[in-house]
C-alpha cells in the first residue's frame, strides 16, 4: 500500500488539469499552498472572473488526524477512534456562459490504522455534469468518456457506477437530480490496492477529455439575460446539494478542514426564487423534462 504513489499522482493530476484549463480560459489560476494545524496540508488552485470560467477550483489535500470523523465511520464503526490520513483532488468548474455546463470531479483515498496495527484503505470518486441548457451530444460524450475510463476494469463497472452516481447526486428535498450524472464510486478496496488505485487514476485522467471538448463547444454561444437568470437559479441547486448532502463537504467540516478550500466549489453568483416553475414548452422546461431524468446516454 504505497500512499506516496497516490499522493504523487494526485498532485500531478492537479497540475495537468489546471494547465489545460488555463489554456482554455487564457487566465492563470492562483496557486495557494496551505498547512493544516491538526496535521497535513494541501494546495488550492482557484480562478475567478476568468474569460471562460466565472469560477473554477482544483483542490489537492493530504490531511491526517488522530480520530476518524463521524462521516468517515458511518459505514465502518470499527474504525472509530483510529488514526487516519486522507488525500484527494476535488474540482468544480462554473463557466460564465449558461450554455456551458458545470462539471465536478473528485478522486480520493482514505487510510486508517486499526488498534491491532492493520491498515484499512479505500478509494472513492467520480465525475458528473450539471448543464443549465441540455444538449444530447454533450451528455452522450461525457458518459461515453466515463465508460471508456472504466472499460479496462470490466464492463460491469460503468453501469454500476453510473447508477450509483444517479442515486447519489439526487436532491431528495427537491426530488430531482442535480444534473445528467456520470460515474460515482466509494468504499473501493477490492480486489486489491493496486487495482483500486488504477481505477482512481483512470477516472482522474479522463476528466480533461470528458469536459474540455464540451466547454470549448459551448463557451462562445450567444446568450442573454434570460439564460443568465436561469443559470443562476439552477446554481442554487448546486449549493443546496453541497451543503446538505455532499460527503466530501461534510467530512471537511467535521475534520476541521480549511474552510476556503472546502467551499471552493461554490458558484460566485446564485439566485433563489419562491415556487418558480419554467414556462411549458420553453428551453428551460426541456432541461427538466429531457435531461434531469436518469437515462442511459450510451
Tell me what the structure shows.
The structure is a single chain. With about 300 residues, the protein is an alpha+beta fold. About 40% of the residues lie in helices and about 25% in strands. It contains ten helices and nine strands. The strands form two sheets. Strands 1-2-3-4-5-6-9 form a seven-stranded antiparallel beta sheet. Strands 7-8 form a two-stranded antiparallel sheet. β4 (about 85-95) and β5 (about 100-115) form a beta hairpin. α1 (about 5-25) runs parallel beside α5. The longest helix is centred in the N-terminal third of the chain and has 23 residues, at about 5-25. The model has no long low-confidence stretch (mean pLDDT about 90).
Termini gap: 35 Å
Compute the number of strand runs: 9
Count of runs of 4 or more consecutive helical residues: 10
How large a portion of the residues is in β-strands, by DSSP E?
25-35%
Catalytic activity: coproporphyrinogen III + O2 + 2 H(+) = protoporphyrinogen IX + 2 CO2 + 2 H2O
Pfam families: Coprogen_oxidas (PF01218)
GO molecular function, one term: coproporphyrinogen oxidase activity
Binding site for a divalent metal cation: 94, 104, 143, 173
